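Q: Got a minute? One more chain.
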Amino acid sequence: MSADEPETRAELLDRAAAYAETVDLDLDLGAVDWTISERAKRRAGCCRYDADAGRITIALTWAAYREFGWPAFAGTVRHELVHAWEFAAFGESGHGPRFREKAAEIDAPRHCRPFADARLVLVCADDDCEWHAERHRASKTVRTPGAYRCGDCGDPYRVRHVASGRIWETRAGYRRARDGIDDW
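A: Always. Here it is, folded:
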């Protein structure tokens, strides 16, 4: 990292908030709270909306910032600002056409790149289907893959633990794998 990049979490929050002032969005930044996430394993940032309080919180992931550095991480800030704009203007946010259009206007990436390798991969049970999705935590889909179907072909999922290569298709299989993998 260069000398002019934030070195502390507080400096990162200050830089992000100041940078947000320069982004051309019709957004009341006074309604946006900034915080740091130490827990996130994949996402570089997230945006939450509390409709009752009329508050938006943008959480930036410290580990992602340390991995990317400020110039690349500024894209993450713009991405989360588009979510904040959508929440403020429409009460909801996603990555659909409205998001894509606004993101293109301010040169924000549609998706923020992950900063850590996935521990788990969901794959379709049909060997001819190439669908897959990476996971970092034992989500419901990871714990009970047989309850879900591939959106491409309709077959069930399998889960592969990347480090061990262990594969399971059921909740019981997940439990056996979890018990049998030392470095989960």
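A: Residues 70-90 form the longest helix (21 residues).
Q: Perfect, thanks.
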